[in-house]
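Task card 7
Instruction: Convert sequence to structure tokens.
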Amino acid sequence: MKIPAKINILGQEHSVEFDDTIVDLGRYVPDLNQILLKKTMDKIPIPDDKMYLTFWHEVLHGILINLEYRDLYADEEFIGRVSGAIYQIVKQIE
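Output:
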């Protein structure tokens, strides 16, 4: 799987950028239509599977906030479970 530099979420183009200064592995920035991902944690490279899972996690945040499901957007447990399922399906069909 390749993480794209841009992704369209519900008709809106979002940039995907790598930023090792963020605290979490990933962050969705709705005001900027941006997904931020870490490449390293404490100078140790993040494994590809973890990075891809984080990418799908942040994409799901983007989907939910743009559909105005604010409660689900903020539900990290829900996001984690559903994004994990999405990633497993995507991984199987590649």
